[in-house]
Amino acid sequence: MELSILNMAGKETGKKIVLNDAIFGIEPNDHAIYLDVKQYLANNRQGTAKAKQRSENAHSTRKLGRQKGGGGARPGDLKSPVRVGGGTIFGPVPRDYGFKLNKKVKQLARRSALSTRAAAGQIIVLDALQFEAPKTKAMIEVMNNIQVAGKKVLFVLAENNYNVIKSASNIERTNVVTVNELNTYAIMNSSAVVLVENAVAAIEATLA
Length: 208
Known about the structure:
By secondary structure, the protein is α/β, with parallel strands linked by helices.
């Protein structure tokens, strides 16, 4: 796939870039995307939910009624799960929701996600993205120039850039990541992927 490279003013620079079909032009594997997104969300769960079991409830253990002759079931004590304020049956306990996913599946998922965006015409390549100082207004101007304002936008940088990250931090539905941080969820959760030119080579080196 061949794309024109734009500058920060949204104008074509006259240069073109050929995206590697092995990364941006494959038949997307929906199941691999599902597994990678599922793992990403699972790994981000805190897993700290906790309900008190019967043995942890701070109630008296005194017997509430006679063993026999009451005309019903044996009453037990106040900790019984069938009583208001009693313990919880099979309640949540702290746990790790994460699970293992093979590296090749994760790479296939990222390639599939990028191919999905490329097929939909939702990838834009910029020659550079630099600001002299963090300025939200400057980032909004760039987004207006390349016609992605108001969309869910993912900017992908080759390396960490403090000024760019801070400039986008207050803009709703705008995310900035480096190539090392690029993941399937971030790609699929965006409606426009903006790649800086030197980030394309880094992505291809990582996923080829």
